[in-house]
Amino acid sequence: WRDMTWQTKADNEVLKRRLWDLEKALEQAWEDKRDIREEMTRQYQELQKQTAAHSQRLEAKVKSLQEQLATRLQESQQIQETATQALAERDRTIAQLQGRLNAMEREYEKILHGSLDLVLAKMAEASQCWKEVGTPIAMEHKERLQEFGLNPLEI
């Protein structure tokens, strides 16, 4: 019985030690699990913070870009309106100048026709005057040529 008791006590001690080792291993596993969970929770929270900060930066950037786009669109619209107004003003100016040019052309045409009519009248008057003055002279020269025996039509 002693050997058996001693053997049982030794086995009991081995089993207690083994149980104690297993309990320590279990506690260590629980601590490791808790540490891992805490680390993962910390990393998750840090990732959430980073994601939230990045999201806010992106939202701010989007808002800024939308404002810039709206500003550029407004500037573009103003430039287009200014260009349209400038083109309309240019077209009005061209139309006014064309109207003036046409009026000047008609006025110069009237002046030219009036001047030509005056020149024609003076030429007709001069022609009549030359006929009046020239006919007696031509007759006189014709008579003189005939006096000398020359035919004025042959000369």
Automatic annotation (TrEMBL):
Coiled coil: 30-114
SUPFAM superfamilies: Bacterial hemolysins
Entry keyword set: Cell projection, Cilium, Coiled coil, Cytoplasm, Cytoskeleton, Flagellum
Claim: Cytoplasm is one of the keywords in the record: yes
Listed InterPro entries: DRC12-like
Main location: cytoplasm
Compartments, record wording: Cytoplasm, Cytoskeleton, Flagellum axoneme
Top-rank taxon: Eukaryota
Family stated for the protein in its record: Belongs to the DRC12 family.
Main function: Component of the nexin-dynein regulatory complex (N-DRC), a key regulator of ciliary/flagellar motility which maintains the alignment and integrity of the distal axoneme and regulates microtubule sliding in motile axonemes.
Oligomer status and interactors: Component of the nexin-dynein regulatory complex (N-DRC).
Protein's name in the database: Dynein regulatory complex protein 12
Taxonomic lineage from the root: Eukaryota, Metazoa, Chordata, Craniata, Vertebrata
